[in-house]
Amino acid sequence: MSETEKQPNAETDMENREEETAGANGQVEPGPSPEELHLLLEDARSKADDHWNQVLRLQAELENLRKRNQRELENAHKYALEKFVRELLPVKDSLEMGLAAAAEGTDESVAKLQEGTELTLKMLQTVLEKFGVEEIDPEGQPFDPELHQAMSAVPSEDAEPNTVLSVMQKGYLLNDRLLRPAMVVVTK
């Protein structure tokens, strides 16, 4: 072979490409124009951006769902004893009233009853505190409608208006959530 035969011929290359792209009828099918390719590329980018935004939204939604479920689970653990504590509060109230009645007596048996009741009340108070129950005894404090329930209002010259004059029934919080408002008498 001669040197000229070895070099590719531009015309031969063009003919080969035309044969490769020729259709069934021997006609050359034109490819998409650069403008069409640019539009296709922009459309693909737009779809890719839309899909990426959907992925980000779904990830954020999943993260929010995970956080919400975690919060609900923590609350379920934190406030699981709420019903139990509500049932115990009247027992505590009764013990306190029994102590108050026993304090008025003078008999020796009343003193023993008072001592036993005080110990029982102390044990109950310790158990309630262990489980996050906090007592609300607002006597002498300003009235707070979020924590107190006014049973009556009386005029008083000794205290400022809207001050808790006396507590009829103590209120309670469970892990800073109101279980029962304190029932109070408020000054006018």
Distance between the termini: 121 Å
Mean pLDDT: 83
Strand content: 15-25%
- Low-confidence parts, pLDDT < 50 over ≥5 residues? none
- Supply the CATH class of the largest domain: Mainly Beta
Radius of gyration: 42 Å
What's the number of helices? Answer: 5
Helix content: 55-70%
Question: In words, what does this structure look like?
Answer:
- The chain is of the alpha+beta class.
- Helices cover 57% and strands 16% of the residues.
- The chain has 3 domains: 33-78; 81-131; 133-188, Nucleotide Exchange Factor Grpe, Chain A, domain 2 (Roll).
- The chain has helices at residues 3-6, 10-21, 34-78, 82-104, 108-130; strands at residues 133-136, 148-154, 164-169, 171-174, 177-180, 182-187.
- It has a 3-stranded antiparallel sheet.
Sum this structure up briefly.
This protein is α+β, with helices and mostly antiparallel strands and 188 residues long. It has helices at residues 3-6, 10-21, 34-78, 82-104, 108-130, and strands at residues 133-136, 148-154, 164-169, 171-174, 177-180, 182-187. Helix 4 (82-104) packs antiparallel against helix 5.
Characteristic key phrases:
alpha+beta, 188 residues, 3-stranded antiparallel β-sheet, 6 strands, elongated, 5 helices, 3-stranded mixed β-sheet, Nucleotide Exchange Factor Grpe, Chain A, domain 2, 16% strand
